[in-house]
Amino acid sequence: MKKFDPSIDPDRLEAEVLHHSEMFYEWAAMLAEARAEVLQCKDDLTYIQAKTAKRLREESVGRITEDMIKEGVAVAFDVTDAKTRLRSAQLRQDKIQAAVDTLHQRKVNLQDAVRLFLSNFFSDPETTGLDATEIRSKLNKRQWHREQADDAWDEEA
Question: What is the domain partition of the chain in residue ranges?
Fold first, then answer.
């Protein structure tokens, strides 16, 4: 199975957005193939179980019950081998499904990253030309005015 990398490089946002649909299609196609493989394995298992049950009935000497046939089918090498192949195919399908689900989330993350980019979230901060002392002085004055307004409000109430 192909290596899956859902990471997003914010410095290459345009390329990531353009590459996403190709990446999603590739993994969705792999998922379709995995689902087909699981269905084929299920069909194979059903066929092997029926063939084994028929063989057990034909080869039996004496009276044989359905429970005995079920037990014989359950332990037959061909059946256990088919079950192992089915479980392996299901595991592969589940892993690919997880990748496709992650790609849905990646799409949402890309949309959010584009929105942030368009709102200049990633831009460099701009300064007002004031130094730190002047900024602190203005903030202290604002705080003093807020406290005076709060005190006046409290006195009225």
Answer: 10-125, 127-157
